[in-house]
Amino acid sequence: MASPPPPPPAMDAERGEIGGRAGRVGFYAAGPAGAGAPPLLLVHSVNAAASAYEMRPLFEHYRRTRRVYALDLPGYGFSERSDREYTPRLMTDAVLALAEEIARREGAGALDAIALSLSCEFLARAAVEAPQAFRTLALLSPTGFSGTRRREGPPGSTRGMDWLWRALRFRPWDHALFAGLTAPPVIRYFLQRTFGTKAIDEGLFAYDVATARQPGARFAPYCFLSAKLFSDDVRRLYEALRQPVWMTHGVRGDFVDYRQKRDFADRPNWRIDVLETGALPHFERLAELVQRYEAALADLGA
After folding, report:
1. How many Cβ atoms sit within 10 Å of the Cβ of residue 298?
2. Which of 89, 119, 148, 273 is the most buried (most CB within 10 A)?
3. Where in the sequence is the domain holding 92, given as residue range(s)?
């Protein structure tokens, strides 16, 4: 059977590619250089059909006024989708590699970064390991704040279940299983749970369907489904952040449990906002999100 055609670029912008420990990593770049603001790095979430398209509203907004970059994480979009184990270390290495590439290209100092959902954990790890590279952090609907158990495991530990990972990859059903998980009605169902309403973004839905049909699309999602991409030391990472941090989350859909955020509310370098949205607030209330983001950074002295 012939491979499906590749999806169109997630953004009408320059496409670049870098190598290194994370393998072949793709990214998008646009906007005026030297615009008076640091470069902005956008990192999409991790799921069965993720890509840089998830950050498209922010990319399109900021490309008018500053230099902005959007990463395709390993296993997604136009980045390498090889059969390997996808881990927080691999994803963090991709974030760090692009941060280094941005510094090389722009000749600038520390950059601003915005991550979505599980990728907030990768961004936090990158900012702890290379604090000089990141001026500010924004965490949209971040993981690691739900429930009562604090994820304070040993450094580098994950919540991965090897038995589940092996079961998901077991032939002959691994291809058929992923095809079922990413069938259009299933993708629509999970987007509705993410948005907390049936009024999802149709452009995002269409792109999710297309990118999930690409060769090797199942490898990273299987690591996600078996919890190999969830850091068990994420609480330590968030507590170690010294940069200005803005966090926001919505109140609809499946991702509304942020009870542990109260432990960070009084930290002098953190600001936390709640928006009347689902877990993708930049698709629903972009103007409000941008206003609150910039106000929070100004308040924090960024």
Report:
1. 10
2. 119
3. 14-299
Return d(Cα 173, Cα 198) in angstroms, integer. Answer: 31
In a domain, 7, yes or no: no
Q: Is residue 147 part of a domain?
A: yes
Starting at the earlier edge strand, list the strands of the sheet with 40-43: 14-18, 25-30, 68-71, 40-43, 111-116, 134-140, 245-249, 270-274
3-state secondary structure of 101: helix
Instruction: Please state, in angstroms and rounded to a whole number, the distance separating the CA atoms of residues 257 and 246.
Output: 17
For residue 156 the two structure tokens come to 């580098």
CA-wise closest residue to 200 among 208, 153, 75, 272: 208
Return the sign of the alpha-carbon dihedral for residues 197, 199, 201, 202: positive
Mean pLDDT over 118-130 rounds to 98
N-terminal to C-terminal alpha carbon distance within the chain = 53
Q: Which residues contact 169 (CB under 8 A, 6 or more apart)?
A: 222
Total domains, the chain:
1
Tell whether 6 is covered by a domain.
Answer: no
Q: Is residue 88 part of a domain?
A: yes
Residues whose CB falls within 8 Å of the CB of residue 155, separated by 6 or more in sequence, listed in order: 233, 236
Structure confidence at residue 120 (pLDDT): 98
Query: What would the pLDDT profile of 6-36 be if each residue is shown by its tens digit?
Result: 889 999 999 999 999 999 999 999 999 877 8
Residue 139's closest CA among 237, 21, 65, 215?
A: 237
139: CB partners within 8 A, 6+ apart: 115, 120, 123, 124, 245, 246, 247, 248
pTM: 0.96
Helix (H), strand (E), coil (C) string for 153-204: CCCCCECCCHHHHHHHCCCCHHHHHHHHHCCHHHHHHHHHHHHCCCCCCHHH
Residue 2 pLDDT class (50, 70, 90 cuts): low
